[in-house]
């Protein structure tokens, strides 16, 4: 059982030069934000509950190793830094998700992230992680517990309402800081972690997903307007296309698989299913 | 979470194996210098800091004087994170409408081995701590030392921290925890009362200004910079002001006697605002955008207010031992902290080597301090802090000096020019200065400076 705490390394006290508008960030004030610290705490608790290992991972530059050392001191069994760009990536989170999973050696059972980071955070990285892993996603949680082999969560909804969720593994969760505070690391662990070597992975270097199964392409559902006609019979006829002029079904016998593929793609394009 | 505080009490522990040879509390200049020396001597040392990184919370005006660094870090100027080299030092005596400046510049200070530099604390403290870590010290940040551990005989044998399993045992504890050191107090090293009287409150604003504007207004170029100390700008509250240039910002602030400011019922930011509006200052900082506001206590009591520096298993250095020199034209603490920390580290290493970490075994610390500028300067200038913070110096002398110079420079034709003695008598009388006091204070000042 592998529980991954995916931590975002960002400057918590970035300053903006009032004269030039330039944003200054500093490695010394960078680290995990409140939501990411809560994510680590949840990951530690889930690993404890399932008797698994907690791995703290980040995509970031060498300076981000300090944040991972703090995670080790707090109780993470392992840490991994996936070599990533020093500057913030101006992307939608999919690139971070790709790099992060690319760097992992084993498939995670649970990934816990902060709901979104302080710098340009859109909160979409966990969703991309879930999509890439083919895992359940439960995002923006204010409570998260592990019991009876499943995860139980509470999500905040609009209007002050709450939604209770129960879901199985594999799962990707993102958490709000809410009232979850990262445990205080014991002193001996803190001292030991000061000199701990943080393994570094390069995206693609350990790619466990690369050999995974390719899923068939499933076109997205499209909303169509209801067929005209006040009678159900008329609408049924319109839907099935019976008794009307229409293109008759065509049976093709292309000479080669390439011709068949081309014919199919043309068809999908004509009907708006493929770009 | 528990913190070191006025009520913290030592914990008695049974004999244990030592976690480190030395534990240094506080990664300010004193602590990093101490840890660096211990690590260089080949002993294990933990440098415990409450901030998330060294310098995270520390405040000072901004000038570091380099001579002690020559001994600690050879060719330090090639590595230290410097903003500007101080090539102009000025002392300004002012009243609300007047300012007399003694302004000195020398290009000698703009080249190696450099006299002084402005540097940001976050950069300076991180750099110093990094030197200690490179030498082998273990930096433990985000950890507050909450008390001392003692053996049954009362000797200090370690510290307790706010972390779980947070005791660190050591042969020697070096308290470098800054002004108002709870560790020195817990160890019973402070014997004096009236502590508030020995403290001033330093309040500082950092204003962003374009580099070209700084160079133009302060008449400097390249990395040259300016250090201005001010007297008479605190509405008579004991204290003074300062203005230092960084690369693209300036630091401006006031230092206020703690009891004076509480009696005056004035807020420090009002005094800084007033200082910023002063006709001699306003043009220098016009358009500056405030990017930082900070405040910190300063131990200004000087030599007479210092605690015991050595105990069984314990040394105290830097502001924790009230080693900041604040006497009008001087506001120096970092160099004293560096010197004291360095000697404390050396004394601890020597005591460990000799196998005697009792007060007697650590006595070399005092000898080293006395032989160096750290205690020599403090002893020599021991009367100046009181003189500078006195009512006369704050309320009467600035006006008297400014009036005297105004009289000298004012042209009153067709009246004949008044003689110096007449001017002196007039300005002293107008500002309520008695000859007796003037002579006495002049004598104290001269004696301090001789
Ligand atoms: C407004 C102002 C202007 C100044 N201007 C100048 C100047 O221009 N030039 C100059 O030389 N000096 C100046 N000084 C004085 C100078 O800042 C100090 O003298 C100097 O910093 C003392 O160094 P230190 O290492 O003894 O203490 P500090 O720099 O105060 O360091 C103490 C360290 O201990 C840590 N600490 C405290 N308690 C604990 C604890 N319980 N557990 C763990 N860590 C702890 C703190 O976080 C801190 O990092 C100024 C001071 C002020 C306030």
Automatic annotation (TrEMBL), chain B:
Entry keyword Cell wall biogenesis/degradation: no
GO MF annotation terms: oxidoreductase activity
Superkingdom, taxonomy of origin: Bacteria
Cofactor (UniProt): FAD
Domain called FixC-like C-terminal: residue spans: 391-449
Family statement drawn from the similarity comment of this UniProt entry: Belongs to the ETF-QO/FixC family.
PANTHER family: ELECTRON TRANSFER FLAVOPROTEIN-QUINONE OXIDOREDUCTASE YDIS-RELATED
Protein's recorded name: FAD-dependent oxidoreductase
